[in-house]
Structure formats: structure tokens, C-alpha cells
Design a protein that fits this description.
By secondary structure, the protein is an alpha/beta fold. The protein has 12 helices and 9 strands. Bound molecules: S-adenosylmethionine (SAM). S-adenosylmethionine binds next to α4. Residues 94-185 form the Methyltransferase domain.
Length: 313
Amino acid sequence: MGSQASVASCNKQKSNYSRVSSRQGSNASKRSQEKAPTKKRYTINDPAKSCFIPERVGERDRSNTQHFALKSLFEGNFFDSIKKYVDFEHHVQILDIGCGSGAWAMDTATEYPTASFIAIDRAAIFPTSIHPANVAFECLDIADVLPYKDNHFDFVHLGSLAFALQSSQWAKVLKEAYRVTKPGGCIQLMEAQLISPGNELVLYSQEKLKSILLQHGQNPYLYENLGAMLSEAGFKIIQEEKRTVVLNNHILADEFMHILSESVDACMPFVMSVDGLESSEEFQAWKSAYLAARRDTSDVTWFGVAARKPTQS
Ligand SMILES: C[S@@+](CC[C@H](N)C(=O)[O-])C[C@H]1O[C@@H](n2cnc3c(N)ncnc32)[C@H](O)[C@@H]1O
């Protein structure tokens, strides 16, 4: 069962942004070659392909660090209510959609060795040779019809896909998740609050981020709509959780500041475009000021929703 797409085909994805000279035309171009340094500006065609570029050096580490920080924040890899319906000790089938580095799947698979996991992503940043025997990684586009039978999985997990999918793709992805979940089986979604509180610098950047996401058909308020999206797909909500890390006063603040810093790097071309930055020096200066403002005046909030497919539809 499932696609046997090669790892090589996984890695064909290209980042969809370009660096262009801010000077246009051949004369300007000649002049710019004479004068150093030439300023560059970034244009973004599609934030879904220019944020969290899976092949970026450091993306695996970011994904792994985030996994363990969230596990600590939410005290586990999934919500307690799911255990009422899914018996993880008895050969259950689990699907992780958009698995990234595979940390969630591998960690949960190690906790439950009799469960079988399939973890899918279009980029092979998951381990291809050494991983728990009860995890199979597959290279798939999650926006397509999934190559799994109806009613197959006891539990489906999706985490941190706000930048990966456009608003219009979510309904199809969740419809597929519903189709492959067993009646009585469960699903869990987890997303970060993208529009964070903070001082003027934070709010200014958040407003720009919001307008760009909207322009590109993405939902800046996805985190508030997880329950509604799951209900729309046919699931019944069983638990909703929201956890906040105040960045200047929380035991996990350093972990989340590190994740934030890596996330800014993971979205560098996007950030440069949003904030009109024209060089790596400007980017570094903006990043330092932004992170200091986040640390002093802001927080990070994550939202999670668990839901169940009705036993009879
Ligand atoms: C921010 S990462 C989240 C990874 C993981 N779920 C986590 O919580 O760490 C988003 C992931 O979605 C994947 N992705 C984006 N669009 C996709 C698509 N259309 N099909 C499959 N994977 C996709 C990316 O390759 C990336 O690994």
C-alpha cells in the first residue's frame, strides 16, 4: 500500500523565489557592476514554497527541536482524549501528514512499538535508512488524493502546515484525512498563532505578514479555525487546547526563542520581501531587533484540536 516514489523525486522541489537586482535595464545593470556593493531585493512568488524550505541546512534541527518543545508544552505527543478511542497498545495504524523531519512519528512510534506508522512529506528530510522499524516514510504530495484505502487509519496527525497549504487546499486535505480515518478513529491538528502580540515593531511585521498571506490565499488565522475546519470535514471535536509561552517568563522560553530564530531564517526570502530588506546585513539587523522585541514584549501560542470520525456516518 502507498506510493513507492523514490527519494530522488522527493528532492526535485525548488524554492520559488528569485533574487533580482534592484536596478533594472542594461545601463543600470552596467553601472551596478561598477559600483559595489550592489543591493539586492527579493521577490516572492509563493510563500508556501519560500518558507520553511525543507532542504535548508538547519530545517531538520528546527523541526526536531520544535517537536520536543511542543511535546513538553502539551505534555505528550497527542491529547489524552484520543487515548479513550485509540488503543495504542494494540496494533493501530497511524498516519502523519506533512511529517517534516519525522520527529513526531519516530518519537511516538518508539513509545508504541506495536503501532504502525506511515509518515508522508513531499521532501525527503525524514531519515531514509535508520528509523524505528514501525515507521514507513513515503514521499507524497499531501494536496493530492492519498493512496490509502478508505477507513484505514486509527489516528491521523497533522502539525505546523500553515505555510504549506493554501486556504483552498485545506478542505481537500481534511476530506482525504476523513476518508482514510476509520469510523471512531481520531485526528489531531496543531498550529502556531501566526499573528502574535507585541510592541510596535512586532505588530508592524505581523500586519505585513498578514497581508502577504492573504494575498497568497493563505489564512493568517488558521490557528483559530482548526475546530471549524475539522467539523466541516465531518469530524466531531473531542478536545481543544491552547498553550502560551510568554517569551520573557516561561520555563520553555529559550527553546521557543531558538525555534523563532530558526523560523525567521527558514523564511528569510519571505521576511526580506515583506519588510523591504535589501541585503543580508539589513536582514540580520532586522532579525536582531525583531527577536529582541519578541523576547521582551511578545509570546508564542500554539493551538491544538483533537476530533473523532463518527462511528456511523
Ligand atoms: C513546517 S514543516 C512541518 C513539519 C512537521 N509536521 C512538524 O510539525 O515539524 C511543513 C512540512 O510540510 C511539507 N509540505 C509542504 N507542502 C507539502 C505538500 N504539498 N505535500 C507534502 N508535503 C508538503 C514540507 O516539505 C515540510 O516538511
